[in-house]
Design goal:
There is one protein chain. By secondary structure, this protein is mainly alpha-helical. The chain has a domain of 45 residues.
Length: 68
């Protein structure tokens, strides 16, 4: 349920007609919220990533979009 919420927010940001600097800020905020909501470790943790594959996949997709 929560993952769907973050996926939808990401799609709204990407498809929205916001200035590039605004989008980057919105994406950074979204990533920070995900880190808190899912108790994501600060450093790479293969065990956590294996247990939370869908979460880390979305997080990485969001992270990669910052360069667009």
């Amino acid at each position: 349920m929560m993952l769907q919420y973050y996926t939808k927010r990401f799609e709204v940001i990407i498809r929205g007609k916001y200035p590039a600097n605004r989008k980057k800020l919105m994406i950074a905020n979204l990533m920070s919220e995900m880190e808190t909501a899912f108790n994501m470790p600060m450093q790479s943790n293969p065990e956590w990533e294996q247990e939370n594959e869908e979460i880390i996949a979305l997080y990485r997709r969001i992270s990669a979009s910052r360069n667009l």
